[in-house]
Design goal:
143 residues, Immunoglobulin-like, 4-stranded antiparallel beta sheet, 3-stranded antiparallel beta sheet, elongated, HSP20-like_chaperone, Small_HSP, A-crystallin/Hsp20_dom
């Protein structure tokens, strides 16, 4: 008979650091926040268009909002700065916001239109029929 003592790992009276973050979303879901603040976005596909709405209150859309598209990724950047003065006192508030969204297949990057009304940025992307049909790949059995 072999008497081998199995040593149990010692647990500290203090919880592990990872236990503090157990209820939070994974780090992968937080990625859009790095490099700026998160812009809340709602999107939908309807009537042959990809429609996106972003909440960006308090900006001048002509000066403070930049929308770019490259390799099927639509990027929205906005910068807000505000200065309030009253009774000889001034307050500054500012921040930058960035959000990148992968466009659906068939997106017509040349036909993208954007508008801004009452703090909501609306972006409309026309969708074309997919030019390439789906391909089936044969699976070979290993010998």
């Amino acid at each position: 008979m072999n008497n081998v003592a199995v040593q149990q790992p010692r647990r500290s009276a203090w919880p592990e650091v990872a236990d503090f973050f157990a209820g939070f979303p994974s780090w992968a879901n937080l990625r859009p926040m790095f490099g700026g603040h998160l812009i809340k976005v709602e999107d939908d596909i309807k009537d042959g268009k990809y429609e996106l709405q972003a909440e960006i209150p308090g900006v001048d859309p002509e000066k403070d909002v930049d929308i770019t598209v490259r390799d099927g990724v639509l990027t929205i950047k906005a910068e807000r700065s505000e200065k309030k003065e009253s009774n000889g006192r001034s307050e500054f508030s500012y921040g930058s916001f960035t959000r990148a969204v992968t466009l659906p297949a068939g997106a017509d990057e040349d036909g993208i239109k954007a508008s801004y009304d009452k703090g909501i940025l609306s972006v409309s992307v026309p969708l074309k029929e997919s030019e390439a049909p789906e391909k089936h790949i044969a699976v070979e059995a290993a010998n």
